Amino acid sequence: MMSEAALEEVSVLSSIYCGEGELKVRQQDAQDGLMVQINSSVGGERRLDVSLLFHLHPPYPLCPPAISVSSSSLSRTQCQDIRQKLLGQAAALPPEPMVHRLVERLQECVEVMEMCEELQRWSLQLQLTGRLLLGRCILVILLGARPSIKEFCRLLKTVKVDVDSSGRKCKERMMKVLIESPSSPSAGHGLQGFVVKSYESLPELSAAFQELNMTEIYQQILPSLSG
Prior knowledge:
The protein has 2 domains: 104 residues, Ubiquitin Conjugating Enzyme (Roll), CATH 3.10.110; 101 residues, Alpha-Beta Plaits (2-Layer Sandwich), CATH 3.30.70. 41% of the residues lie in helices and 24% in strands. It is found in: Cytoplasm; Nucleus. One of its GO terms (biological process) is positive regulation of protein sumoylation.
């Protein structure tokens, strides 16, 4: 039997996503629950059409919804990545109506994805390798010629890759260099390409630096991360 909370939530969602084709109820069944599709245009200057399908099983919201993500603007891998992030967010939320919060989270996921693509493009142009570590703090590790690293930092401060509280694209003015260190072939850093990696805790962040044989550098920047 469908929960009253789910039915009430769909009613509220219908008033929020009231544009033509924004919200569709795909299924309403006492045994299998509700399936609600929300079509949204998200991202920065390049607006992307993304469709989210939420399956609200009868125990919902005591259990999180199943989620599907599709988009003609994104690859299957990108859709799967967004889906995993939304499922993780849903599992972390308290057992209460959450669909609207997850749709809002979609905007953040796409913004981060676009920022990652921009940083990867710069690293390729400047012949840099590195890591983009996403978590409580966003960290960029770069390896390459010093002038190229300086140019990367200049781009980060002057090109609109961040988003302000109003959702408008803005420049990353809070960026600061935590440490500069010479590198040598004998250091054995495992940096290849420009890889994006997420972390949830300081131990996971420490493990990422350890994987790159940069434990000493991590220890040096740790006070800045803990402050």
